[in-house]
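pasting for ref
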Amino acid sequence: MNTLKKTIMPLMVIALMALVACNSDDNEDSYIYVPLTPAEKAEQINHMQGTYQGKCFFAPDLYYLAFTDSVKASWTVTASDSLITINNFPMKAFTSAIDNLEMKEAFSNDSTQTLKLSVYLYRPWGTSGPLSNAYFNAIPKGTEQLKVTVPMTFGSEVKNTTLQFGTNFRNAFYAEGAFDNQKAMYFYMILEKISVENGPMYYANTMIAFSGTK
């Protein structure tokens, strides 16, 4: 089973990177996001709308960064507000960045949080005509851009915990996603740091990936 998981996750990452990649060369234009027309956006977000069942993949070790761990996950895309809502968010996916035992335990046992991501659809540079896949940025929605604060229980005390997300990962991957014509969706979330109210702060620089179908 471990061998199977180690094989599947790299393949899923490669597939997603192939879907969201604009071009394979180093041309600066390959990183340009081309906006869709209002009609194209409406068509794509309506195709994406629905509830997805799948998995959240994450690395238990920041050093080796092998995506060998996963938990079941579900999320819903709503067209009216262009949001991805992840209920019962698996906070344990972020424990690799934490060495405080009480804090690690709190994250490992918390599956009560709801995270929302804004969907920004775009057309990959150099493409024309109808798109067979939908391409998007998935931006965590909180009190500030890319910053989400949630209440968490540490021992017997509830503290606000702030998750600061980023837009790229080690200058290589981007917080992007794709929805294909087989009703499958893939997207990344990139966590830069974790801050606990009156407590420690950790620079995480870690990535988790969601993969599922509706």
